[in-house]
Amino acid sequence: MRIDGKPYRTIWLAEDGWSVEIIDQTRLPHDFATTRLTTLDEAAHAIAAMLVRGAPLIGATAAYGMALALRQDPDGIDRAYDTLLATRPTAINLRWALDRMRRRLSSLPTGERAEAAYIEAAAVCDEDVGINEAIGSHGAALIRRIAEAKPGQPVNILTHCNAGWLATVDWGTALAPIYKAFEDGIDLHVWVDETRPRNQGASLTAWELNSHGVPHTIIVDNVGGHLMQHGQVDLCITGTDRTTARGDVCNKIGTYLKALAAFDNGIPFYVALPSPTIDWTIADGVREIPIEQREGAEVSALTGRTADGRIETVTVIPDGSPVANYAFDVTPARLVTGLITERGVCAATSEGLLGLFQEKRAAE
């Protein structure tokens, strides 16, 4: 995607050929800044502190984190794997990327590992871009069908959290269909949930859409159901950090409530996902997916820009009140209209997924 006319990915190899640069997403939307990663520990911190976030980008950063680690210690595969895996428990792309890197590198002579790690990490990133662009094309077809059914009116799409290009290497998952449809000239409008507690919708999704010129409106998290009741939402599209083999989806906290509202109002609820986000080893998302609990400060404090341009953090709860900060929830497959993957759109069922990924059926 482009920022001020310049094309960017969210992660890239620096000009020195070995360090890695990222967009520091904790500084958005008020300050666009990049950060250079040079060590395993810096890559792990970038993931844990959410300088990078979104399941596909977490996986890509972990892949480059492995490369940085092996540049320093070619025998350090297991240490790098364990260090990076411990950063975020919910997004399955993290483990997928680390397993891929370890398989590729473990059998190589130590002197060849670092170079091979950089090549493999770059391949992870390039593949992610292709996957997400394909998701965009398949999802845009859904938006086009709705547009054809209501000529002269915009298609109103509700999304939750940030599943745009900032959450991936490029294009995004849930926003990729929106970008594709917008570029195809389809009249559309996006309702952007603010997405507490970190406000990734208001700060990241809105920043992306604004930069790209896509019509949008920021709403507080609890407005979605009201809009659906009054016919102001045509479809919902969200991302997912882990999808089970039967189609349950785990996404940013609050997604389940949007799915319930959509179900009650007969509004299509789609989830866009790259195949590395599917965890084929589990079926029951509510029981089996670990839900990350993050520090309470994400709930108790808000950071923003004051009228005179200063960036300040303020406390918004009473002193002494305890905080629970569950980062994700699980939406059961029965509430999901369909899954948008790089191979097409399918029902949120075991058979739907296996119909697109026949190789998994053969492996059973």
The SS-based structural class is alpha/beta
At the first level of CATH, what is the class of the largest domain?
Alpha Beta
Strand order of the largest sheet: 8-7-6-9-12-17-18
Work out the count of structural domains.
2
CATH architecture of the largest domain: 3-Layer(aba) Sandwich
Distance between the termini: 39 Å
**Main β-sheet, in a few words?**
7 strands, mixed
- Give the radius of gyration: 20 Å
> What percent strand?
15-25%
How would you sum up the global shape?
globular
Mean of pLDDT: 96
Report helical residue fraction.
40-55%
CATH superfamily of the largest domain: Translation initiation factor eif-2b, domain 2
**Low-confidence spans: pLDDT under 50, at least 5 residues?**
none
* CATH-defined fold name of the largest domain: Rossmann fold
In short:
The chain is α/β, with parallel strands linked by helices and 364 residues long. Helices cover 41% and strands 19% of the residues. The two termini are 39 Å apart.
Report on the structure:
- It comes from Skermanella aerolata.
- The active site is at 241 (proton donor).
- Substrate binds at residues 53-55, 88, 200, 251-252.
- Pathway: Amino-acid biosynthesis; L-methionine biosynthesis via salvage pathway; L-methionine from S-methyl-5-thio-alpha-D-ribose 1-phosphate: step 1/6.
- One of its GO terms (biological process) is L-methionine salvage from methylthioadenosine.
- Helix 2 runs antiparallel to helix 5.
- Helix content is 41%, strand content 19%.
- The chain has 2 domains: 2-127, Four Helix Bundle (Hemerythrin (Met), subunit A) (Up-down Bundle), CATH 1.20.120; 137-363, Rossmann fold (3-Layer(aba) Sandwich).
- It has a 7-stranded mixed beta sheet with strand order 8-7-6-9-12-17-18, sandwiched between helices.
- It is globular.
- The longest helix is centred in the middle third of the chain and has 40 residues, at 110-149.
- It is an alpha/beta fold.
- Strand 1 (2-3) and strand 2 (6-7) form a beta hairpin.
- The chain has helices at 40-48, 55-72, 77-85, 92-106, 110-149, 176-183, 200-212, 224-229, 255-264, 285-288, 297-300, 350-356, 358-363, and strands at residues 2-3, 6-7, 11-13, 20-23, 34-37, 155-159, 188-193, 216-219, 235-238, 242-244, 249-252, 269-272, 278-279, 301-305, 311-315, 328-331, 338-341, 344-346.
- The chain is built from 13 helices and 18 strands.
